Records
---
Amino acid sequence: MKATRKNFLKTSAVLTAGALVHHPLLQAAVNKIQQQPEALAYTLPKLGYAYNALEPYIDAKTMEIHYTKHHQAYVTKLNEAIATDNSLKGHKLDHLIAHINQVPEPLRAAIRNHGGGHWNHSFFWELLKTKTNPSQKVTDAISKDFGSMDEFKKQFEKAAMGQFGSGWAWLIKANGKLQITATPNQDNPLMDIALIKGKPVIALDVWEHAYYLKYQNKRADYVAAFWNVLDWNKVESLLFS
Ligand code: MN3
C-alpha cells in the first residue's frame, strides 16, 4: 500500500512537471512511468476443495467453469478497471464496494459488477460443504426471526426464485436482526447502493451459470439442493461474529 502511494505521488509530481516543462526527455520519462505495469491487486482465492466435492448437488464441471472462468473473469476485469485510475489502487475490496457511489463515473459500473462479482464468489465458495447440520444455537437464532428453520428455508427459496434474471439471494444480519434479501447482477448488501443493507451470512448465486449445466431451467431444484451443500458451521461463525 505504502509503495503504491509513494509511486502514485512520484508519478503525479513528474506529470505536473511534465505539464509545465514539455521537455521531450521528461515526457519520455513520464511515458515510461505510465507504462510500468502495476502489481495486480486482486487474485482468485484458493478453492478449499475439489471441483467434485459438492456432487451430486453441484456438479464438478459447473464448479470448474464457475470458478476458473466466471470468477476469474471478474478478478481480471476488476484489475483492468483499477489499473486505469490511481484513486482506486491500494484499497481493500470491502472498502471499494462499500463506496460505489464515490467511484469516478466512467468506472463505477465496472467496480460494481466486477468488484461485486469477486466479493460475492469469494464469499460463496467459503459457504459450501457437504454433510453439515445447523447446531441448536443456529436453529434457535434463525427460528427467533423467522418462526422456524422450515419457514426460513421457504422464505429464502422464495427470494431466490423471485430474483428475476441474474442475481443473488441473501440472509443478512442488520441491527441484530436476521433478514432475507435478493440483489440483481453482482450487487450485494454491503454496497452503499443496496436497497437493503446488512452483513451477509448466507449467499446463493442464482445466475444461470451457477446451475444450468446440471439443472437447465429448473432453478427451483438447484435452490432446493443448496441446503445439502451449505456449510452450517461457517454460517454459525458468521452469525455470531
Ligand atoms: Mn456466479
Note: Confidence is low (pLDDT under 50) at residues 1-21.
---
Amino acid sequence: MIDSHCHLDAGYFADERAGVLERARQAGVSAFVCVGVGRGTAAAQEAVALAAGEPDVFATVGVHPHDAAVTSEADWTELERLSRAPRVVGVGETGLDYHYEHSPRDVQQLAYRRSIALARATNLPVVSHVRDAHLDAAAILAAEAPAAGGVIHCFTGGVPEARAYLDLGHHLSFSGILTFKNAGNVREAAAFAPLDRILVETDAPYLAPIPHRGARNEPAFIVETLSTLAGLRGLAVAEIDRATSENTRKLFRLPQDARVG
Ligand code: NI
C-alpha cells in the first residue's frame, strides 16, 4: 500500500514518529508521500530531510492555501530551491480553501497560480487542496495546465466535480472521509472515477477513518480507506491496492525500486 498524502512533521507525532512509520510498514505500507506545508518553510525542510533519511519516504513542498497570505518572497525562494531537492516528487499541497478562508481568496488564487508555475518549471505534479472552491480551482488548473498533471487530494466533491477534474487530466485521491456516514457524494465519485485515476491517502494526522475517527490518524490506517474503496467498486482489496499504488507511483514518478502493493 502507498499513503499518497500524509503529514509527518515531528510536531504531530513527537518522539513517536519512528514508531508510526514502523507500524505502517508492518501493516504493509511500502511508500509514503510526505507533504511539507505550513507557515514558513520549516515543514517543507523537514519533509525533504525525512525523505533523505528514509528509503520509503518521498516529499512534496508547497504553500497551503491557508498560508498564502503569510508566505514571504524569501519563503518562495526557499521553496523553489527545495522543490529541486532529491526525492521531492510534487508541489503542494496548494489550492483554494473558501471554507476556512484563512487567506483572502484573491491571495490564495495568486499563490495557487504561482505554485502551478513552479510545478511546470520543475516538471513535477501538483497536489491540490480544494474546499468549497471547485469551480475556481478547475478554472485555474485549466488555465495554468501543469504539464506533469496532479491530484486533487482528499477529494470531497461529488460526481460533477470529479468529472471536471478528470476531464482536465487530474487524479483524485480519497481519504478516510470515504468511511464517514455523511459522505455519500464522495463515495459516488469514488465509484465513478476510472480505476487508473484514483489514489488513496490518510492525510494523517487529520481525518482518521472509521473505526479510528476522532483519534490521531496515521499511515497504518490507510487500509480502512482501501477496503471501503474496494467494497464500493466491487473489487478485492488487493486489486484496488495494486491499482492505486501503481497510479501513485506513476503520478509521482516514484523510483522503480519503490516497492508497490
Ligand atoms: Ni494534507
Note: DSSP finds ten helices and eight strands in the chain.
